[in-house]
Design the sequence.
């Protein structure tokens, strides 16, 4: 029997396959790949672009301004969609491809899906070396696309059109795998993109994908139940995996019914609302005094969907030496860390089964009450930090408090690197689950504005509120222009504190002199302040520069009425920070001419004595 075939170029076949992949979100069948971010160059404009133009009404292509930023926008989209839909980012070869490597690192660290397609050199090598080709004298098979191997979950180079038949399904499987989720990269050599081949029509049949929900091993679950029942002071740590699983309501109900205090990681913030009865605040280095106090006393920690990075664990100093961990995670690697009892499985399924297996067990009321008491004290502290004063320059806490108060219940807060992650982790009071995105797995300066574009595209019914510092604005701001062009509105609040203020804080805290961080401490002819409002206005945004907290509140109210991206700038304090932090392990010089550095090294050595020994 002769199979039905269709003759297409490799690029055309790839695009047709993407157009026929679907998934189900909230009961509705939707495209698995709803769009492509692309910047075309000689490595993809003649073949891949031709294929994308033919389906532009089915698979929309959005023009980026920078390859890194458009891939970050794709990541922001995936995060806003809680990994249920996936964007594509396509570049040419050479510098365009390498610009995407940083974004791939963001996706890899944060376990987020994005499909990266890059042009490649010629497989036949006839025109070699082509423009933008980096040659390796001892290995001509290597080019810049090999750099993606370090920061992707799946990597392939298509050297024959037929290979996409096996490669694309494997890439999709990785993108949808809750345990192995991350970026998939496929290199597309220029000469192979153009080659026509008779593809089987069955390859393009519409396919509806479902994200798998692996259930936990029964014996491990029973062991977790036994261990939890021995706990006198149990604590839940909710991570990003709880949100991606859709376990928010289940975990919130479980924590309240069982009397377990629930703390949140950076990726997990927004699992519950700020005022949920079991909530005790964010944990770790940018955490609250309440959650960190409980962590220090907890005897059994139920870690749900978290990779337990150093900012969560206080570099593994936040817990008592004999505390025991039960780690629920879809990824075996994450579940097995630090001698934890690894319960490998989907967060929603595992918490549901854990709830059913616990019988009438509850945490002791004295412990539950302690969580409420510590959190009440923390909220009183927050009120004090956010209260307006007569100081001429407002603090981050005050600025965050005003923006938070003016935000709608469903508005999405987005930030990443710099001083704002710690300040919003502590001061932002989540009004509705899944309205908080702080990228800190890779702590990538530049993620924020691009992610705002992706998030606005993902859900036009809510407004992303992006908060950044002046350093991040200077590093990557071009997607302000992208959002104006595309009609995807966000509100951008720029806190101008004169440079890289939070890293200056760390520099000073470890005994170092202020050097090369704040503009005034850099090798400059004279300090100079950028007018960010005028700059953003030149890119088509509506803008307002404010001087006071009252003006900021009015500007936020105005920004919510505008029809396009709106940028508000305010000068903020570079030296006042919200306390609550746990200890953090960083390198401090063992010898130095500065007495402050020597003292800091001694203090760091003392802190390391509290660290939990493990792997």
Sequence:
């Amino acid at each position: 029997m002769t199979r039905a075939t269709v003759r297409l170029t490799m690029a055309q076949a790839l695009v047709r396959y993407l157009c026929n992949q679907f998934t189900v979100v909230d009961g509705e069948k939707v495209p698995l790949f709803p769009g492509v971010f692309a910047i075309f160059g000689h490595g993809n404009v003649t073949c891949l672009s031709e294929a994308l133009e033919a389906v532009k009404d089915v698979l929309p292509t959005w023009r980026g301004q920078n390859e890194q930023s458009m891939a970050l926008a794709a990541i922001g989209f995936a995060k806003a969609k809680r990994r249920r839909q996936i964007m594509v980012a396509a570049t040419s070869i050479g510098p365009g491809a390498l610009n995407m490597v940083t974004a791939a690192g963001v996706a890899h660290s944060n376990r987020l899906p994005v499909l990266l397609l890059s042009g490649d050199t010629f497989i036949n090598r006839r025109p070699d070396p082509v423009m933008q080709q980096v040659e390796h004298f001892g290995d001509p098979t290597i080019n810049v696309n090999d750099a993606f191997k370090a920061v992707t979950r799946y990597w392939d180079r298509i050297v024959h059109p037929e290979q996409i038949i096996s490669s694309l399904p494997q890439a999709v499987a990785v993108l949808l795998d809750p345990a192995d989720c991350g970026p998939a990269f496929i290199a597309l050599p220029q000469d192979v993109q153009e080659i026509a081949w008779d593809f089987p029509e069955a390859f393009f049949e519409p396919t509806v994908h479902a994200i798998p929900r692996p259930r936990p091993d029964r014996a491990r679950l029973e062991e977790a139940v036994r261990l939890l029942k021995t706990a006198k002071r149990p604590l839940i740590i909710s991570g990003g995996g709880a949100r991606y699983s859709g376990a928010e309501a289940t975990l919130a109900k479980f924590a309240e019914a069982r009397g377990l205090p629930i703390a949140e990681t950076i990726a997990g913030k927004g699992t519950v609302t700020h005022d949920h009865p079991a909530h005790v605040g964010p944990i770790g280095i940018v955490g609250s005094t309440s959650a960190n106090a409980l962590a220090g006393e907890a005897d059994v920690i139920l870690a749900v969907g978290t990779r337990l990075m150093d900012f969560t664990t206080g570099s593994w100093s936040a817990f008592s030496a004999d505390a025991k961990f039960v780690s629920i995670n879809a990824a075996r690697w994450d579940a097995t860390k630090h001698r934890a009892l690894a319960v490998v499985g989907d967060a929603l399924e595992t918490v549901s089964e854990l709830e059913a297996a616990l019988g009438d067990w509850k945490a002791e009321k004295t412990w539950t009450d302690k969580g409420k008491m510590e959190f009440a004290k923390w909220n009183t502290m927050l009120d004090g930090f956010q209260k307006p004063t007569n100081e001429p320059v407002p603090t981050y806490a005050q600025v965050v408090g005003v923006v938070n108060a003016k935000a709608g219940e469903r508005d999405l807060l987005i930030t990443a690197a710099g001083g704002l992650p710690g300040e919003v982790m502590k001061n932002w009071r989540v009004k509705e689950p899944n309205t908080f995105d702080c990228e800190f797995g890779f702590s990538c300066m530049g993620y924020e504005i691009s992610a705002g574009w992706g998030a606005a595209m993902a859900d036009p019914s809510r407004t992303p509120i992006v908060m950044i510092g002046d350093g991040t604005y200077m590093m990557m701001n071009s997607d302000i222009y992208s959002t104006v062009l595309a009609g995807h509105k966000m509100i951008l609040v720029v806190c101008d504190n004169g440079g890289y203020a939070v890293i200056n804080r760390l520099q000073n805290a470890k005994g170092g002199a202020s050097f090369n961080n704040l503009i005034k401490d850099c090798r400059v002819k004279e300090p100079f302040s950028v007018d960010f409002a005028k700059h953003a206005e030149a890119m088509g945004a509506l803008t307002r520069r404010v001087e006071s907290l009252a003006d900021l509140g009015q500007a936020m109210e105005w920004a919510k009425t505008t029809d396009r991206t709106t940028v508000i700038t305010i000068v903020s304090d570079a030296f006042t920070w919200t306390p609550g932090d746990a200890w953090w392990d960083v390198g401090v010089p063992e010898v130095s001419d500065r007495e402050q550095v020597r003292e800091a090294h001694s203090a760091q050595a003392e802190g390391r004595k509290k660290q939990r020994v493990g792997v």
In short: The longest strand covers residues 115-120. The CA atoms of residues 76 and 451 lie 4 Å apart. DSSP finds 24 helices and 23 strands in the chain.
